[in-house]
Design brief:
Helix content: 10-25%
Strand content: 35-45%
Number of helices: 3
Radius of gyration: 21 Å
Order of helices and strands: EEEEEHEHEEEEHEEE
Distance between the termini: 33 Å
Shape: elongated
Length: 206
């Protein structure tokens, strides 16, 4: 795992603070382990928070917490929460296509982008909710229909979603992230995967 330069910390009021908004007059603590952090700024590395001494904090839970907060903020601050994915349909001329007759195993499909606004299906976005014995990083539910199957959003920082969770049949979107960077949240720049549907996805800003 590459060295993580922390861009976020909690201030004295327990508020998430970005490094650009931090100054040395205040005290900051690690979002993951709670240890004191200091502000570092030099010519070789960008400005960042760092632990005061050697620490066993590996940053994995920290990155998960940052991204979960970003997803929740995006969900509740926008009127839509849209995902887009590519759908393939067989060519309507498959029975008369001369190329298909010559190449029998040819798969000729027409592709288009389908968009779904998840806010039309779900109105609640919470962290670490259990369903069918599994806990999702982020779980979307419908408060008006509590029996409706929820949607899990999983953060893939160091490892992908567990095989048991995938096999459960729960609807899951996985987001692959590299670190905690970016003050604003734009999922278009990250890779998403709807595990149950085996489709590549992206989340459109709305």
């Amino acid at each position: 795992m590459k060295t993580l330069l922390y861009e976020y910390a909690k201030n004295e009021c327990d508020v998430f603070t970005h490094i650009d908004d931090a100054n040395k007059e205040h005290c900051y603590r690690c979002i993951e382990c709670g240890e004191p952090l200091i502000i570092k700024e030099g010519s070789k590395k960008r400005k960042h928070f760092a632990h005061k001494s050697n620490s066993n904090c590996d940053g994995e839970s920290y990155v998960h917490k940052i991204w979960k907060k970003r997803i929740k903020d995006k969900f509740y601050s926008n009127s839509t929460f849209c995902i887009q994915y590519i759908v393939g349909t067989p060519c309507k001329d498959v029975t008369t296509c001369m190329i298909k007759k010559k190449v029998s195993d040819l798969k000729c499909n027409t592709y288009y982008v389908k968009e779904v606004d998840l806010k039309q299906e779900y109105d609640t976005c919470e962290e670490e909710i259990e369903y069918k014995g599994f806990v999702g990083d982020i779980v979307l539910t419908d408060s008006k229909n509590p029996d409706k199957e929820p949607l899990f959003i999983e953060i893939d920082y160091t490892h992908s979603c567990d095989e048991d969770k995938i096999a459960s049949g729960i609807r899951i979107i996985e987001i692959r992230v590299e670190d905690d960077r970016k003050k604003t949240f734009n999922l278009d720049e990250h890779s998403l995967w709807m595990i149950k549907e085996k489709r590549s996805l992206k989340l459109r800003d709305g």
